[in-house]
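Researcher: We're teaching a course module on how sequence relates to structure. For the next exercise, students receive a sequence and then see the predicted structure as tokens, so they can try to spot secondary structure elements on their own. Here is the exercise chain.
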Amino acid sequence: MLRSQLLDTSNSRGRIVALLKRGPLTADEMAAGLKLTGAAVRAQITAMERDGIVQRTGQRAGATRPSQLFALTSAVEQQLSGAYVPLLIELLRESAARLKPREFRALMRSAGKGLAAAFPRSTGPDAPLATRVNDVGALLNEQLGSTMEVQRSNGHYVLRGSGCPLAALTEHHPSVCAAVESLIGTLVQAPVQECCDRTQRPQCCFLVG
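Model: And here is the predicted structure for the students to work with:
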């Protein structure tokens, strides 16, 4: 789910997220805070558990029996944080200042290869290249918020995006694209060449094969 949707307090899901940002709560505590029925909150919490937004995290003692506590999952808390991009920009600035361009690009490629280990693979290296490319494109869209489409051009497959999920970084550090190039190459198990457009509104482009 997109960060903007999680922060949208015009709906009950967004309002529950806003409450849980302060700490774990029971369904009844959330219901009281939102002025909703306990049944309505429990139905929403069940759906949010299924979607990986909230998780059970212990119990709170009650007058007659303990009540289940719910909290935001760590993945959602990370998604809601606004600190990651400024810190990453500063880390990249420091790295680029201390390293030679060749060393900085090598660092980005190594980072992309390491990131690939965190991505699930639905196809093996023996699958047709078209299948591998399509699967990686879908994976990047799901995991990174990309807008990749698979195209064919001069005998190559092209992963092309209508935007760039790392635009805040690539504007000042084009070598960041090498990290994504390495990530895609590791996942698809084929040669990949970055051909991104970084003028005005950055757009991703990677030639595969």
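Model: If you want an answer key for the exercise: The CA atoms of residues 194 and 206 lie 5 Å apart. Residues 118-208 form one domain.
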